[in-house]
């Protein structure tokens, strides 16, 4: 049990940064006013992406993860790497969708829901 708590703590620091509080598991996205909306331009393209994917869609997902869902350590670099994968899986768990690390239709919906 101690090992699981330590791993959870390490994952929290990895995803949310030192001194940041992790959103509660299963927490509903917070409704924000128009001025507070995440600065993630809509791409109108939501292809399936996963570990190893690169490009504009990955950058869009990373923006939604960082600015809407609170994963401050997700770098918006267009490369779907380890930290993006961990954040996607955590967001999937929070939204109640299949936790598989693949950003498909349900996960895109989830990521946009955090930014409403």
Spell out the blueprint of helices and strands:
Layout: H1 2-16, H2 56-68, H3 82-95, H4 105-113
Explain this structure:
By secondary structure, the chain is mostly helical. It has a single domain (2-18, 45-113), classed as PGBD-like superfamily/PGBD (Muramoyl-pentapeptide Carboxypeptidase, domain 1, Orthogonal Bundle), CATH 1.10.101. Helices cover 44% and strands 0% of the residues. The chain contains four helices and no strands. It has helices spanning 2-16, 56-68, 82-95, 105-113. Helix 2 (56-68) runs parallel beside helix 4 (105-113). The longest helix is centred in the first third of the chain and has 15 residues, at 2-16. It starts with a helix and ends with a helix. This is Peptidoglycan-binding protein. Residues 32-52 are annotated as: Disordered. Keywords: Signal. Pfam families: PG_binding_1. InterPro entries: Peptidoglycan-bd-like (IPR002477), PGBD-like_sf (IPR036365), PGBDSf (IPR036366).
Summarize this, please?
The protein has 116 residues and is mainly α. 44% of the residues lie in helices and 0% in strands.
- Whole-number tally of structural domains: 1
Tell me, rounded to a whole number, the average pLDDT: 78
Beta percentage is under 5%
CATH architectural designation = Orthogonal Bundle
Supply the key terms.
Peptidoglycan-binding protein; single chain; signal; PGBD-like_sf; mainly alpha; 116 residues; Peptidoglycan-bd-like; 0% strand; PGBDSf
């Amino acid at each position: 049990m101690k090992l699981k708590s330590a791993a959870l703590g390490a994952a929290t620091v990895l995803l949310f940064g030192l001194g940041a509080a992790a959103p509660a598991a299963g927490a509903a996205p917070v409704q924000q006013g128009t001025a507070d909306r995440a600065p993630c331009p809509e791409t109108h393209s939501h292809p399936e992406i996963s570990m190893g994917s690169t490009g504009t869609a990955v950058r869009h997902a990373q923006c939604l993860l960082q600015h809407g869902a609170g994963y401050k350590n997700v770098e918006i670099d267009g490369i779907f790497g380890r930290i993006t994968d961990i954040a996607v899986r955590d967001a999937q768990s929070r939204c109640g969708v299949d936790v598989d690390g693949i950003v498909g239709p349900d996960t895109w919906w989830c990521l946009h829901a955090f930014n409403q």
